[in-house]
Amino acid sequence: MKEFDLNNIFTDVSITGNKNDALKKMAELFAHENGIDAKALVQGFEAREKESTTGFGNGVAIPHAKINGLQQPVVGIVTFTQPIEWESLDEEPVEIAIALIMPLDDPNKEHLTVLSKLARKLMDDEFIKDLQNGRHDAKKLYEVVTNAIEFKA
Amino acid sequence: MSMASFVGVTKCPVGIAHTYMAAEKLQKAGEAKGYTVKVETQGAQGNENELTDADIKDADFVVLAIDVAIEGMNRFIGKKVLLASTANAIKDSDKLIIDAQKAKVYTGEKKSAEKQEEQTEENDEHKQSPIVQQLLNGVSHMIPFVVVGGLFIALATTFGAHPTSAGMVIAPHTVWNAMNQIGTIGFTLMIPILAGYIAYAISGRAALAPAMISAMVANTPAILGTKAGTGFIGAIVVGFAAGYLVKWFNSWKIPQSIRPVMPIFVIPLLGTGIITAGFILILGAPIAWLMTSLESLLNFLSKDPSTSIVLGLVLGAMVAVDMGGAINKVAFLFGVASITAGHPQIMGAVACAIAVPPLSVGLATFIRRDLNTEEEKTAGIAAILMGLIGITEGAIPFATANPKHVFPSIIIGSAVASAVGMIFGITDAVPHGGPIVGVLGATNNIGLFFVAILCGIAVSTAMLAFFKIRKDNKEKAKVKAA
Fold first, then answer.
1. So what's the ipTM on this one?
2. Which cellular component, as a GO term, is one annotated location (chain A) (predicted)?
3. Which residues, at least 6 apart from B165, have a Cβ–Cβ distance to it below 8 Å?
4. Chain A residues in contact with B39 (beta carbon < 8 A)
């Protein structure tokens, strides 16, 4: 299993409801795919959102959580058919959520370095544009992200 | 010293995403505005890109985009610190950078708001005005060029030159000739470096090219359409003009898509075009007119022997007023013409004044030496060596850094030296100045030649010392009162 692969990209997910419903749905999808406890994951997401919104603007959010016992980080993407109100910094609803799920105590700094590179990349307008253009196509999204950041197995 | 740079620290609760997003955004926004930016990230991987003492010292201000307390707050005591959240930085770093320029100075102590305010005001009072800081940034970058250029020329002239009616001539294809040329390159670069780093202090990297290129243009008579370039005074004018012009460009609302090419393409082209056009079209003619008028004045004064003292005073003042610039050139060329015409006492008077500015500013650093910075002490010794060889430019760093005190001192001192030279009827058959022409036997009376120079130095040095000590006393009084 890699930190980021096609199995963790879900395009055009239909959510009826608000941000919490979206987080719940995301937790279910990633929990199932990666063998994580869905309840712990949704709690982690919600706790982080309570501190401050992860919707940083341009229709993109990065909900994240730390999970006890996880072996390596998981990066996943969910795109929504209907934009979700996320209390974003620019007050625009979110169409793309990039989830960062990390082990609680990760001794491997390389994982964190990859995530920090991804975070920096999110400040690149071109990168965001590419994500938006590819939001209906999982393969395209995978390409955009892996072209920008080198993930290690 | 202002270098148009800032530092930042980012930290978010989890330390994997917002810390880096905020850092990236600050970095990008700052660089787009022409700042040198360094942002320390205190994330889950520990502290990265850590700020050094030098980074913090050089920074104009500090932006903290933090959601939780950070390590090492004490590092920022005495700096302007803006406190914001990572969300603020991600959303609008441009605004943070603008706000941080006006942020309060961090004192390191938790005080009541009132006390904090007092402290800030006190700090402001001791601080130099931004214009002085910008000027000093240019000067400190220029000094090494003046020192290398001046000392290479001085050594080459001392050991390799022989006096002729065409000036101090150094035989071609000798090591001294090479040294002289190297020194000349140092002096040539001094002008763009001064202008460039004044402009850099105002609006960062994008201003460097317009300022440096325009300063070269302003110092190139062939382009300007005048007989001489505008020397270091022109360089100061160019530096401030380019700096504030680029600052204005940076305030424009520019579409995101062309923003990256602004500092590397649009601003340099536009800035260089506007400033050089301004110098050539607007200032070229007045400078040429000024030079012609001064020449007529000198001609008029030289016709009547009874005004020879006035002529001396004017010549001396002209030598010191722009040290190698257009006005200095008029006086110098007038002296050269007098050699050709066979009555070299005008060159004699000019030669007396030439050494006064660098020797005086250099000697003045030895009076109450404790009041001088290390930079001034070094530049002072170099200035004395340059003065002995008749290189007036040695005083330029001092005059630029402290024009209010240095200009009156050296102008009056040089005027005195030339006037005394006139009274003694000193002649100089070589178009060059300073003690060296006396030692080489180009003057008619080396003893009186030195007396004239010493009179000028005595006046200038006394004035410089007086200004320096008075300033120190004033500051002491201020500290006591506070």
1. 0.87
2. membrane
3. B339, B340, B429, B430, B431
4. none
Lowest-confidence range among B121-135, B312-326, B328-342? B121-135
Residues B28, B22: Cα–Cα separation, whole Å: 10
Select from B415, B418, B417, B399 the least CA-distant residue to B467. Answer: B399
Catalytic site positions of A: 64
| A107 three-state secondary structure | coil
Q: Which residues have a Cβ under 8 Å from the Cβ of B369 and sit 6 or more positions away?
A: B377
Residue of A nearest to B88 (CA): A89
**Which residues in chain A have Cβ-Cβ distances shorter than 8 Å to B89?**
none
Q: Is B470 exposed, middle or buried (0-12, 13-18, 19+ CB in 10 A)?
A: exposed
In chain B, CATH 3.40.50.2300 covers 5-126
The most distant pair of C-alpha atoms in chain B lies apart, rounded to whole Å, by 87
pLDDT in tens, B426-451: 999 999 999 999 998 899 999 999 99
CATH architecture of B5-126: 3-Layer(aba) Sandwich (3.40)
Q: Taking Cα atoms as reference points, which of B1, B8, B35 lies closest to residue B263?
A: B35
Mapping DSSP to helix (H, G, I), strand (E, B) and coil, where does residue A57 land? strand
Check A125 against B256: CB less than 8 A apart.
Answer: yes
CB B65 within 8 A of CB B22: yes
| Cα A132 to the center of its chain, rounded Å | 14
Phi, psi of B163 (to 5 degrees): -75, 135
Q: Which residues contact B432 (CB under 8 A, 6 or more apart)?
A: B163, B167, B168, B351, B354, B390, B442
- Quote the pLDDT of residue B1: 39
pLDDT tens track for A111-138: 778 888 888 998 988 899 999 999 999 9
Q: Contacts of residue B24 in chain A, CB cutoff 8 Å?
A: 119-120, 123-124
Q: What are the structural domains, with CATH classification, of chain A?
A: 6-148 (3.40.930.10)
Burial call B243-282: b when 16+ CB within 10 Å, e when fewer: bebbbebbeeeeeeeeeeebbeebbbeebbebbbebbbee
pLDDT of B318 over the 90 cut: yes
Q: Do B91 and A48 touch (CB under 8 A)?
A: no
